[in-house]
Amino acid sequence: MELHGGFLAFTRETFQLPKHWRDWLGEIRSEEIEEFGLYLVAKQSSRTPTILDGENKELRTRLGRLYAGLQLDRRLHLPRAPFLASGGWNTHEGVDVREYSSLDTTGAGIVNDLTPVSPQSLTNAAAIASRLGQSLATAQPRTGA
To answer: Where in the sequence is the domain holding 119, given as residue range(s)?
Structure first.
């Protein structure tokens, strides 16, 4: 599903972990990743898709805002820590993962929404992410007192 702001969302049925990712991550971690039901992607054109640089940092930041937007839209509970993979894509080699890390998971609350994430929640999350980005871009730094 394509979302506003250069985001994509894939379900377990529409996402397939490429073989070279499986080789790089190992069998156990690959199986854990494949158990997730939702995969969020931030994308943009790049002049240097094979180099981790400021573009990757910006994409990670934008994806963090999308994740925060999803948490604000609904009481999201995850049974295990989500992950962030960063890299590039080019027409010759496809997707190339250069960096992998686990993210903080939300703790269980008194009330948790265990239903699958809906397309409307994803749309809301993308809108929240956009507004967060705009707010942070226009925020004036505070000067010392």
So the answer is: 2-138
